From TrEMBL, chains A, B:
<comment type="subunit">
    <text>Homotetramer.</text>
</comment>
<dbReference type="InterPro" id="IPR020829">
    <property type="entry name" value="GlycerAld_3-P_DH_cat"/>
</dbReference>
<comment type="similarity">
    <text>Belongs to the glyceraldehyde-3-phosphate dehydrogenase family.</text>
</comment>
<feature type="binding site">
    <location>
        <begin position="194"/>
        <end position="195"/>
    </location>
    <ligand>
        <name>D-glyceraldehyde 3-phosphate</name>
    </ligand>
</feature>
<protein>
    <recommendedName>
        <fullName>Glyceraldehyde-3-phosphate dehydrogenase</fullName>
        <ecNumber>1.2.1.59</ecNumber>
    </recommendedName>
</protein>
<dbReference type="InterPro" id="IPR000846">
    <property type="entry name" value="DapB_N"/>
</dbReference>
<dbReference type="Pfam" id="PF01113">
    <property type="entry name" value="DapB_N"/>
</dbReference>
<feature type="binding site">
    <location>
        <position position="168"/>
    </location>
    <ligand>
        <name>NAD(+)</name>
    </ligand>
</feature>
<feature type="binding site">
    <location>
        <begin position="139"/>
        <end position="141"/>
    </location>
    <ligand>
        <name>D-glyceraldehyde 3-phosphate</name>
    </ligand>
</feature>
<dbReference type="InterPro" id="IPR036291">
    <property type="entry name" value="NAD(P)-bd_dom_sf"/>
</dbReference>
<keyword id="KW-0560">Oxidoreductase</keyword>
<dbReference type="GO" id="GO:0050661">
    <property type="term" value="F:NADP binding"/>
</dbReference>
<feature type="domain" description="Glyceraldehyde 3-phosphate dehydrogenase NAD(P) binding">
    <location>
        <begin position="2"/>
        <end position="140"/>
    </location>
</feature>
<comment type="pathway">
    <text>Carbohydrate degradation; glycolysis; pyruvate from D-glyceraldehyde 3-phosphate: step 1/5.</text>
</comment>
<keyword id="KW-0963">Cytoplasm</keyword>
<feature type="active site" description="Nucleophile">
    <location>
        <position position="140"/>
    </location>
</feature>
<dbReference type="GO" id="GO:0004365">
    <property type="term" value="F:glyceraldehyde-3-phosphate dehydrogenase (NAD+) (phosphorylating) activity"/>
</dbReference>
């Protein structure tokens, strides 16, 4: 049993904590949090041992009636791996602290690549992370692009990928984010940093990215073009991608026209928090013109890196092969959407869904 | 065991179906749906018997790979009560059909009051619905207002209630609703229909309402003023309202500043679909100036009527007292938010929640 702690119990941290707790070969020793707010309350409701990340704020937890198991150093002394889910940049400042407690650390994609020995997705970098002391799980967008480009590169060769990322402005609970009525080039310089970040896990792939942000909270949307080294049919590409366990091809018959209905479907299927751990690709958007592939995919910024964090822990601490780790993670979480409709990947005609 | 069917498996219908299935004294015989879309797929995934609401569209279900148990008349022949969750106005057209199958019917608040023998909330109208053949559960906003005004009227007398309703433009999955960048008086005439609708369940209460709609999807927000027949302190009002099982007083220490964090908290607490069955009142907004009470409350338009539908079924078909029905419904669903923080209704001072 790998003993795991989570430092930072926000959007990513609480999901990673639940995912660790769901693995039969891991034990969640506790979570560390700065503020005694509603998220800390929900951690206690879930029965997680709660540690104060900031020892100056113990009184606030007491005032809020939230019982503490200790402070962050206590948690670090009791685990094999700490997953750092602090806001971007804070992880780098925590790095030495983790090392001084002789604890392996997983960082998130908001940190610079040099925060860790290796950058990671399970699809591209499992062996690279073997026995590493520190690993950085790449960001949600980079994870989504790597999962898509890796099988395309293996099957056809990727000559060049060109992607426009229409990013969500903030997460659903972030009342202080924007824009509220604009689509903002962000950064206005092209290419954006996302392309180089993909190359931390797929070094041979040539990719340029342009990024915007929009007044939505549910998901990121990618408009993807890939110039391939071959000219497959669209159906061949669909079949290739449908074999990837962390890609969900949205069947046209489902009547899912955007992130709202995607999240609705996830909630209706009983997914915790409506999480979409898979890339969500519109099956009918997959088109090939010569050697040029086009498609739309959505990435759930709160969720797609969660199974990757689990696989990163296994890569660092065990000798389990990648396929077995991914299968274990998928089964413990329930990765793999579709139901009956999931079998309808190439519907024969349009179906009205208007009730 | 009361045998229940649900006609219309959309936003309300799927939630009512789950709630019926969770009751130890009810059995869900099936759900009827017009389109074989992602919601129909999720019904099959949940193991619900699926009936085609429109017998002209059987081929579409077959094409989508969704197995049918029959059509709507088959469902009506197998239940004691049908809960109509069709779009507003469709319920009135279904009324005769239900009567011809000798089935009791529960309608939703989108229908006119005269669709049924009685309008209903459990807090105000349980006995009125006894043995009725048809009952209308009032709308989400009316339910939220009635739950608030009933205890205030009993404790202090309501001289006059004046409420501004800032309504959500559409539900999260409704990509075709607006506004997208405006706050629209809707209707522009004052008072809106909500005040008269409250009087279908609280006939003696004097209430005027003004309604707007805003570019949000998560919840409705009410800005409430009530001129009382007495002059309680704000703390006395808080204590009164905290005793109501379907009112959740949001403690200031929780750091919940809007609908986004409310939904986040509900999801973190494991609520299905992040549903908030309770009115959500900001505890610190409860203020009294002389005999004038002010407060803000949020109403989850997808969820607050769900426990009311369950109680309506019990009122129509059993002799169970109101308190027992409400307790059974609350326990089966898990109504009652708060955790440790819920005990902190009158925090002594501000707590920063900024991580």
């Amino acid at each position: 049993m790998t003993r795991v702690g989570v430092n930072g119990y926000g959007t990513i941290g609480k999901r990673v904590a639940d995912a660790v707790a769901a693995q039969p070969d891991m034990v969640l020793r506790g979570v560390a949090k700065r503020s005694p707010n509603h998220e800390a309350d929900s951690a206690v409701q879930r029965g997680y041992a709660l540690y104060a990340a900031d020892s100056d704020r113990l009184g606030e937890f007491e005032h809020a009636g939230l019982p503490l198991a200790g402070t962050l150093p206590d948690l670090l002394d009791s685990v094999d791996v700490i997953v750092d889910c602090c806001p971007a940049g804070v992880g780098a400042r925590n790095r030495e602290r983790y090392a001084s407690h002789d604890v392996r650390a997983v960082f998130q994609g908001g940190e610079a690549a040099n925060v860790a020995d290796a950058s990671f997705t399970a699809r591209t970098s499992f062996e690279t992370a073997r026995d590493a002391d520190t690993v950085r799980v790449v960001s949600c967008n980079t994870t989504g692009l790597a999962r898509l480009l890796a099988p395309l590169d293996e099957a056809y060769g990727v000559e060049k990928a060109r992607v426009t990322l229409v990013r969500r402005g903030g997460d659903p609970a972030q009342t202080d984010r924007g824009p509220i009525n604009d689509i903002v080039p962000d950064p206005a310089t092209v290419p954006s940093h996302h392309g180089p970040d993909v190359r931390t896990v797929l070094p041979e792939v040539d990719i340029d990215t342009a990024a915007l942000k929009a007044p939505v909270t549910a998901m990121h949307t990618h408009s993807v073009n890939v110039s391939l080294g071959a000219a497959p049919t669209a159906d061949e590409v669909r079949e290739l991608l449908a074999r990837e366990s962390r890609l969900f091809l949205i069947p046209e018959v489902a009547g899912i026209d955007g992130a709202g209905k995607l999240k609705e479907y996830a909630l209706d299927c009983g997914r915790p928090r409506g999480d979409l751990w898979e890339n969500c690709l519109w099956a009918e958007s997959i088109s090939v013109s010569g050697t040029d592939l086009y498609l739309f995919q959505n990435v759930h910024q709160e969720a797609d890196v969660v199974p990757e964090n689990i696989d990163a822990i296994r890569a660092m601490t065990t000798d389990i092969p990648v396929d077995e780790s991914v299968t274990r993670t998928n089964e413990a979480l329930g990765v793999g959407l579709g139901g009956r409709l999931g079998e309808e990947l190439t519907p024969n005609g349009p179906v009205t869904a208007d009730d």
